[in-house]
Amino acid sequence: EAIGSGSFGKVYKGSYRGKIVAIKRYRAAVYGCKSEVEMLCREVSILSKLAHPNVVCFVGAVLDDPSSLSVMVHCFRCCTNKKGRVLDPPFRLRISYDVAQGMRYLHESAAKPVIHRDLNSHNILIHLDGRAVVADFGESRFMCQTEEENMTKQPGNLRWMAPEVFSQSGRYDRRVDVFSFALVVWEVHSAELPFSHLKPAAAAAEMAYKRGRPPLPDQPTAQFPAPILELLPLAWHPDPVARPDFSQVHH
Prior knowledge:
Keywords: ATP-binding, Kinase, Nucleotide-binding, Transferase
Oligomer: single chain
Low-confidence stretches: none
Number of domains: 2
CATH topology of the largest domain: Transferase(Phosphotransferase), domain 1
Number of helices: 9
Structural class: alpha+beta
Shape: globular
Binding site for ATP: 24
Domain Protein kinase: 1-251
GO molecular function: ATP binding; protein serine/threonine kinase activity
Strand order of the largest sheet: 1-2-3-5-4
Number of strands: 10
Radius of gyration: 18 Å
C-alpha cells in the first residue's frame, strides 16, 4: 500500500516480522545519482547506530537491486501539524518535550553524537502510541566528522534554517538544531507555518538578515504557556552561543 512519495521514489506501508513498517523504495534513476546514493548510505550508517524512543526506529536496508533499494522504519500515522489543525495543549507540550528528548539524545547521549541539520516539522513523526520521534537523517553528520568536513554548506529546509547556516558566515555547530527546534515548537503551538506569507528562501533571509522571528504574545496564553514563551526567544537567539543546549531545553 503506497502511503507517500517524493523525488526519491515511493513510501509503502508493509509488515516485517509482525511489525508495521514504512518502506522507502527508490527509483533506479535516483540510485544512479552519486549524491543521492551518498545521502542514503549516510542515513543508513547513522540510523543503524541510534536507539531512542524519540528517534525513528531503523529496521534495515535491502541492497539486492538498485531499482528497488529499500529502507524500512517503523510506520507512523502523521506529521506534527496540518494547516488549520489546532492540537490539544497537552499534546502540543508532549510533542515539544519528546522532540527535545530525542535531540538531547542525538547531541549528548548517542554512542556517536549526531547533528541533525534538517530539523523541521516534516521530519517530526507521531508514533502510533502518541509519542513524537525525530526522523530523516539524510543531511545529518556524526559530530566527530564535523571537524573534518566543510560545515559551511546549506543543508536542510530553508524555512527552518538557522541564520548562520543560511548566511554561510562561517562554520556552524550543533546549535543550528536548537534554532530549528524553536521554529518547530512555534509551529506546533501556533498551528501555522513560520513566515507562511513568504517563500522559504525569503523566510530564511528575513531571519538571517533582518533578525525577524515569528510573533509571540507579550504574556503567557493557552496557546503559548509560560515555559514555551520563555524558551523560544533563547532558542532562536541570533547568537548561537546564547542558545541553550538540549539538556537545558529539556529541563
